[in-house]
C-alpha cells in the first residue's frame, strides 16, 4: 500500500477499538497486528486461552476473550464485558472440502453454523456495543466464485456471506458492512489442509496465478484496513486473490 493510504488508515484507526474474531492465527492475526500498528486498541476472540495469550504477546498486547462460532449463545456474554466497539472483524473459520457423498448431515450443519449462524450471532451480539460510525468486516472466500469438485456446502456458505453483507449494509446503516474474499493465502489453515504436500501444492498454485505468488496474511490485512478506514465503502466484497477468479 502507498504511504498516503497507510497514513490514511492510521489516522482513521488510531484510538479506535477493533474486535478481531479469529485473531489468534493467519489472516486474523495479521489484521490485529496491522490495526495495533495503526494505533487501535484490539480485542482478540478465539477458542483457546493459550493461543489468545500468545497472539496478544506477539502483537504487543490485546484484550482477550474466549468465544466459539459453534457456541453462539455465549456471544452476548463475550460482548457484554467489552467497551464500545468501533470495528468488528470476523475472520474465524476452518475449511473442510469434502464431497457431498463424504459429508454427513452433521458436516453440512456444522459448516452452516460456522460460516453463517456463528458470524451472524456475533454481529447480533455486538450490535448494542457497535458505534454508529463503525463497521463490520466478514470473510467469504474464492470458492464463492470459483468452485472446485469438493466443498459445495462451503462454497454456498461463503457465497451467502457476500449476500449477507449487502443485506446488512442496508439493515444496519449507518454502520458499514463489508466482506473480504481471500484467495489462497499461506496460513496455518493450509498446513492442516495440504499436509506434507503443502509446499508443492502452493508452488503449483502460485505458478498459475497472474501474480505468480499466493497470498500472504498481510495482503488480506491491508484490504481489511482499507475497508475499516474507508467511510464510503459499504455492502462491498473486496477480492484479494492474486487474480484467482480470472483463471
Ligand atoms: N488461508 C486461505 O487460503 C483462505 C482462503 C479463503 C478463505 N479463508 C478464510 O479466511 C479465514 C481465516 O483463515 P486463516 O487462513 O487465517 O486460518 P487460520 O490461520 O487457521 O486461523 C483461523 C482462525 O479462526 C479461528 N477459529 C477457527 N474456528 C473457530 C471457531 N469455531 N470459533 C472461533 N474461532 C475459530 C482460530 O482461532 P483458535 O483456533 O485460536 O480458536 C484462528 O484464529 C477463514 O474463515 C478461512 O476459511 C482462508
Automatic annotation (TrEMBL):
It comes from Trinickia dabaoshanensis. Belongs to the short-chain dehydrogenases/reductases (SDR) family. Signal peptide: none annotated. The lineage of its organism: Bacteria, Pseudomonadati, Pseudomonadota, Betaproteobacteria, Burkholderiales. This is Short-chain dehydrogenase. GO terms for molecular function: oxidoreductase activity. Keywords: Oxidoreductase. InterPro entries: NAD(P)-bd_dom_sf, SDR_DHRS6-like, SDR_fam. SUPFAM superfamilies: NAD(P)-binding Rossmann-fold domains.
